[in-house]
Amino acid sequence: MQLPQEFKDATATVLNDEFHSFLQSLDTIAPVSIRFNTKIMPTLEDNVVPWCQDAVYLSGRPLFTADPLFHAGAYYVQEASSMFLQQVVNQFFSDAQSVLDLCAAPGGKSTLLAQTLSHDCLLVSNEIVRQRAYVLAENLNKWGRGNVMVTNNEAAAFSKLTHFFDAIVVDAPCSGEGMFRKDKAAINEWSLQNVAMCALRQKDILSDVWDALKPGGVLVYSTCTYNRSENEDNIKWAAAELDAEILLPDTSGFPEIVKTEAGCRFYPHRLRGEGFFISVLRKNNSENRKMPKLQSKKGMKFVKSIELPFALKNPESRYYINDQNYIRAYPKINFDKFMHLNTVLHCIDSGLLVAELKGKDMIPSAQLALSDALDTENCICAEVDKSTALMFLKKENIVLVDYPKAYVLICYQAVPLGWVKNLGTRSNNLYPQSWKIRMNL
Question: I need a labelling partner for 83 at 20 to 30 A (CA). Which of 73, 228, 306, 426 fits?
Answer without folding.
Answer: 228
